[in-house]
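QA checklist item 7 of 12: single-chain prediction sanity check.
[x] sequence parsed
[x] length recorded as 175
[x] structure emitted
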Amino acid sequence: MLNKKNLPLYIALAVPVLMIILVAAFIYLPGIGKKPAHNFLYMTGNNVYDYAYNNIGYQVNGGHLVYNPPASPAPNQPNYPASGDVHFYLYDVANNQAKEVTLAEAEGYNLDSSNTSSDGYTIQQGNGNSGDFLFGGGGGDYTSWFIKGHNRAIKLNLKLTGAYYSNFRFLGWTE
Protein backbone atom coordinates (compact mmCIF):
# COMPACT_ATOMS: atom_id res chain seq x y z
CA MET A 1 0.00 0.00 0.00
CA LEU A 2 1.21 3.51 -0.79
CA ASN A 3 2.15 5.69 2.09
CA LYS A 4 0.58 9.14 1.49
CA LYS A 5 3.41 10.69 3.43
CA ASN A 6 5.92 9.56 0.77
CA LEU A 7 3.77 10.46 -2.26
CA PRO A 8 5.89 13.53 -3.20
CA LEU A 9 9.00 11.31 -3.14
CA TYR A 10 7.35 8.75 -5.43
CA ILE A 11 6.29 11.49 -7.84
CA ALA A 12 9.75 13.06 -7.79
CA LEU A 13 11.33 9.73 -8.70
CA ALA A 14 8.73 8.86 -11.34
CA VAL A 15 8.92 12.13 -13.30
CA PRO A 16 12.54 11.67 -14.59
CA VAL A 17 11.86 8.03 -15.47
CA LEU A 18 8.73 9.02 -17.40
CA MET A 19 10.64 11.82 -19.17
CA ILE A 20 13.33 9.37 -20.31
CA ILE A 21 10.69 6.94 -21.58
CA LEU A 22 8.84 9.72 -23.45
CA VAL A 23 12.00 11.12 -25.07
CA ALA A 24 13.07 7.63 -26.17
CA ALA A 25 9.60 6.97 -27.57
CA PHE A 26 9.59 10.23 -29.56
CA ILE A 27 13.02 9.42 -30.99
CA TYR A 28 12.61 5.74 -31.85
CA LEU A 29 8.91 5.15 -32.51
CA PRO A 30 8.76 7.09 -35.81
CA GLY A 31 11.44 4.81 -37.31
CA ILE A 32 9.94 1.49 -36.25
CA GLY A 33 8.83 -0.54 -39.22
CA LYS A 34 10.57 1.67 -41.78
CA LYS A 35 12.96 -0.11 -44.10
CA PRO A 36 15.05 1.21 -46.97
CA ALA A 37 13.20 0.97 -50.27
CA HIS A 38 15.85 1.90 -52.85
CA ASN A 39 18.56 -0.44 -54.09
CA PHE A 40 21.93 1.02 -54.99
CA LEU A 41 24.78 0.48 -57.41
CA TYR A 42 28.40 0.39 -56.30
CA MET A 43 31.76 -0.50 -57.74
CA THR A 44 34.66 -2.27 -56.14
CA GLY A 45 38.30 -2.91 -56.94
CA ASN A 46 41.68 -1.44 -56.04
CA ASN A 47 41.70 2.35 -55.59
CA VAL A 48 38.11 3.06 -56.63
CA TYR A 49 37.43 5.66 -53.94
CA ASP A 50 35.92 8.95 -55.01
CA TYR A 51 38.60 11.65 -54.80
CA ALA A 52 39.40 14.39 -57.26
CA TYR A 53 42.70 12.75 -58.21
CA ASN A 54 41.15 9.32 -58.63
CA ASN A 55 42.09 7.54 -61.82
CA ILE A 56 38.75 5.76 -62.26
CA GLY A 57 36.59 7.51 -64.83
CA TYR A 58 33.19 5.98 -64.00
CA GLN A 59 30.69 8.67 -63.02
CA VAL A 60 26.95 9.18 -62.89
CA ASN A 61 25.97 11.78 -65.45
CA GLY A 62 22.38 12.49 -66.45
CA GLY A 63 21.13 9.66 -64.25
CA HIS A 64 23.27 6.99 -65.93
CA LEU A 65 26.69 5.49 -65.36
CA VAL A 66 29.19 6.73 -67.95
CA TYR A 67 32.92 6.32 -68.47
CA ASN A 68 34.92 9.51 -68.79
CA PRO A 69 38.61 8.89 -69.35
CA PRO A 70 40.42 10.39 -66.37
CA ALA A 71 42.46 13.51 -66.85
CA SER A 72 46.12 13.49 -65.94
CA PRO A 73 46.69 14.57 -62.36
CA ALA A 74 48.11 18.00 -61.70
CA PRO A 75 51.84 18.15 -60.96
CA ASN A 76 52.72 17.34 -57.35
CA GLN A 77 49.30 15.74 -56.80
CA PRO A 78 49.16 12.08 -55.84
CA ASN A 79 47.95 9.65 -58.45
CA TYR A 80 46.74 6.25 -57.34
CA PRO A 81 45.71 4.43 -60.47
CA ALA A 82 43.29 1.56 -60.30
CA SER A 83 44.87 -1.83 -60.56
CA GLY A 84 43.10 -5.03 -61.43
CA ASP A 85 39.51 -5.39 -62.47
CA VAL A 86 36.64 -3.13 -61.49
CA HIS A 87 33.41 -4.90 -60.54
CA PHE A 88 29.89 -3.46 -60.41
CA TYR A 89 27.24 -4.65 -57.97
CA LEU A 90 23.55 -3.93 -57.50
CA TYR A 91 22.71 -4.08 -53.81
CA ASP A 92 19.25 -5.42 -52.96
CA VAL A 93 18.29 -3.72 -49.68
CA ALA A 94 15.24 -5.94 -49.10
CA ASN A 95 17.36 -9.11 -49.07
CA ASN A 96 20.59 -7.45 -47.81
CA GLN A 97 22.73 -8.92 -50.57
CA ALA A 98 24.77 -7.81 -53.57
CA LYS A 99 24.52 -9.17 -57.10
CA GLU A 100 27.31 -8.60 -59.60
CA VAL A 101 26.20 -6.88 -62.81
CA THR A 102 28.00 -6.24 -66.07
CA LEU A 103 29.10 -2.79 -67.16
CA ALA A 104 26.32 -2.79 -69.78
CA GLU A 105 23.71 -3.60 -67.12
CA ALA A 106 25.15 -0.94 -64.78
CA GLU A 107 24.95 1.66 -67.55
CA GLY A 108 21.26 0.82 -68.06
CA TYR A 109 20.10 1.71 -64.55
CA ASN A 110 18.51 5.07 -63.77
CA LEU A 111 20.62 6.38 -60.89
CA ASP A 112 20.32 9.14 -58.33
CA SER A 113 23.88 9.91 -57.22
CA SER A 114 22.91 12.01 -54.20
CA ASN A 115 24.23 10.82 -50.84
CA THR A 116 20.74 10.43 -49.36
CA SER A 117 18.03 8.28 -50.93
CA SER A 118 14.56 9.71 -51.43
CA ASP A 119 13.39 7.69 -48.41
CA GLY A 120 16.06 9.20 -46.13
CA TYR A 121 18.86 6.60 -46.02
CA THR A 122 22.61 7.03 -46.52
CA ILE A 123 25.54 4.65 -46.99
CA GLN A 124 28.28 5.18 -44.39
CA GLN A 125 31.53 3.48 -43.56
CA GLY A 126 31.92 2.18 -40.03
CA ASN A 127 29.35 2.45 -37.33
CA GLY A 128 30.99 5.53 -35.87
CA ASN A 129 29.75 4.41 -32.48
CA SER A 130 32.82 4.47 -30.31
CA GLY A 131 30.94 4.81 -27.04
CA ASP A 132 31.66 7.31 -24.33
CA PHE A 133 33.05 7.49 -20.82
CA LEU A 134 30.23 5.55 -19.18
CA PHE A 135 29.71 2.91 -21.84
CA GLY A 136 33.18 1.72 -22.62
CA GLY A 137 34.53 3.77 -25.52
CA GLY A 138 36.68 2.20 -28.16
CA GLY A 139 37.17 2.43 -31.87
CA GLY A 140 34.34 2.29 -34.37
CA ASP A 141 34.08 -0.48 -36.95
CA TYR A 142 35.52 1.16 -40.06
CA THR A 143 35.95 -2.05 -42.06
CA SER A 144 32.19 -2.41 -42.48
CA TRP A 145 29.57 -0.40 -44.35
CA PHE A 146 26.09 0.48 -43.10
CA ILE A 147 22.87 1.86 -44.50
CA LYS A 148 21.65 4.43 -41.99
CA GLY A 149 18.43 6.34 -41.59
CA HIS A 150 15.40 6.79 -39.36
CA ASN A 151 17.40 6.09 -36.17
CA ARG A 152 18.65 2.71 -37.33
CA ALA A 153 21.75 1.29 -38.97
CA ILE A 154 21.85 -1.96 -40.93
CA LYS A 155 25.17 -3.62 -41.69
CA LEU A 156 25.55 -4.28 -45.40
CA ASN A 157 26.75 -7.61 -46.80
CA LEU A 158 28.84 -6.09 -49.56
CA LYS A 159 30.96 -8.10 -51.94
CA LEU A 160 34.28 -6.27 -52.07
CA THR A 161 37.50 -6.81 -53.95
CA GLY A 162 40.77 -4.95 -53.75
CA ALA A 163 42.59 -3.09 -51.04
CA TYR A 164 41.49 -2.46 -47.47
CA TYR A 165 40.18 1.14 -47.46
CA SER A 166 39.96 2.01 -51.12
CA ASN A 167 37.78 -0.78 -52.43
CA PHE A 168 34.22 0.65 -52.31
CA ARG A 169 32.61 3.45 -54.27
CA PHE A 170 28.91 4.25 -54.06
CA LEU A 171 27.56 5.21 -57.49
CA GLY A 172 23.86 5.87 -56.99
CA TRP A 173 20.40 4.84 -55.81
CA THR A 174 18.32 2.98 -58.39
CA GLU A 175 15.05 4.62 -59.33
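[x] summary fact logged: The CA atoms of residues 66 and 106 lie 9 Å apart.
[ ] second reviewer sign-off
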